[in-house]
Amino acid sequence: MPKSKKEIIAIDSISKIYHLGNNVVKALDDVSISIYENDFISIMGPSGSGKSTLMNIIGCLDVPTKGVYKFNNELISDMNDSQLANIRNEKIGFVFQTFNLLPKLTSLQNVEVPLIYSSLGRKERLQRSEEALSIVGLSDRMTHKPNELSGGQRQRVAIARALANKPSIILADEPTGNLDSKSGVEILNFFDELHKAGNTLIIVTHEESVAKRAKRRVELFDGKIVIDE
Amino acid sequence: MNRIINYLRDAISGVLSYFGQTKLRTSLTLLGITVGVSSIIAIMTVLATFEKSYEGLVSDMKTNVFYITKDNPVEISFGNIGRGSRNKPNITWSEYEQLKRSLSLTKNISATVAEEPSERTISVGKNELKNKLTSFWGGDAAILSLNKYEIIDGRNLNQQDIDNRTRVALIGYDIKEELFPYSNPVGQTIKIDNLPFQVIGLLAPKGEMLGQSMDAMIGVPISTFLQYFSGRNWRRADIMLILESESMDTIDAATDEAVGVFRAIRKIPPGGENNFYIATNDQLMDTFGDFTGSLTLFIGLVAGISLLVAGIGIANIMLVSLTERIKEIGVRKALGARKIDIFIQFLIEAILISLLGGIIGIILGLAFGNIVAFFLGQDPVIPLNWVFYSIQICASMGIIFGLYPAIKASNLNPIDSMRYD
Question: Largest alpha-carbon pair distance within chain A?
Answer without folding.
Answer: 55
